[in-house]
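Reposting from the mailing list since nobody answered there.

I have sequence plus structure tokens for a pair of proteins and want to know whether others read the tokens the same way I do. The first protein:
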Amino acid sequence: MRRKAKTANFGIIYGISPFGLAQRLNIPRSEAKQLIDDYFINFPQVKQYMDEQILLARKRGFVETIMGRRRYLKDITSENAAVRGFAERNAINAPIQGSAADIIKVAMVRIQKRFDEEKIASKMMLQVHDELNFDLLKSETDIVKKIVKEEMEHAVEMVVPLEVEMEAAENWLLAH
């Protein structure tokens, strides 16, 4: 159920069609269309954001992340509907994904700075999307969790607070 909800949520905000959602969720197209329609009824601000991003991209030729990085969209006014549709989906997606990348990069720099300042021997090893993976000394588990949580949740101050979930395990697979 969580996987289906995540698929629907991310698919909708990235402009998935009823056909595409139906295929991904293995449901009838009519059910997928109703799901999308209901989503926008329940979350009208999401639809407003999507429409505003497309209009902004058409006006300026680019969209921005929360840290001001730009994604130029030369095809946003294309006469070809398929090409224009791809650019429109990027106008919606790029600020979201790019801002997430901005946030995690700020958090990574701050975490490393804290590790250095506090002489933490554990090492940040890997970033995958919104996850960080650490080679963790068991004796440092509590302090590393505290530092990571603080720095990730406060990397960028937003109206909606960022929340961090974390697990410690013998390997990455077991942590999930």
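The second protein, same order (residues first, tokens after):
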Amino acid sequence: MGRRGFKKYMDKRSPSTFKIQITSMVDMFVILLVFLLKSYSTSPVNITPSDKLTLPASTSAKDPQDVLKLVVSKVGIFVDDKKIVDLNQGILDVKDVDASDTQFIRSLYNELDGQAQKARQIASVNEEIEFDGKVIMQADRHLPYELLRKVMYTSMMAGYSDVKIAVVTKD
């Protein structure tokens, strides 16, 4: 059988009875896709600690919310990446603390109060947004608790009474 004979034979033969059934394969891929989408979770809030900041470790598994970010490091106190108070190895200068209330940090209060007023003004215009007084605090694990207490007290006085502390998860 030559080349021409083979070509005639291929043209004359009956259509193939073998057909690929892909419905079960499509079902399998849909199940895999749904499984992967359900198992893959990501938080819409991205908290990236500074390389000079060591967060405490915890077994907590809650996702952070998108709220005001307060960072307390050894070099300063930051509100939304803006340096508000200078610190010297985690120690406040005497001029930063209010003379009548040693737990109160005036410059931090002024910034947080301005942020709260801005958030309340936005909430008054937009019905979908509500000012809830939440803040996420990233604090270096080596800072003294006395400093963190002053920061939390000052934020509470400015209207941010719900303070969550950012941690890294233990493995």
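Reply #1 (J.P.):
I read it the same way you do. The CA atoms of residues 10 and 17 lie 15 Å apart.
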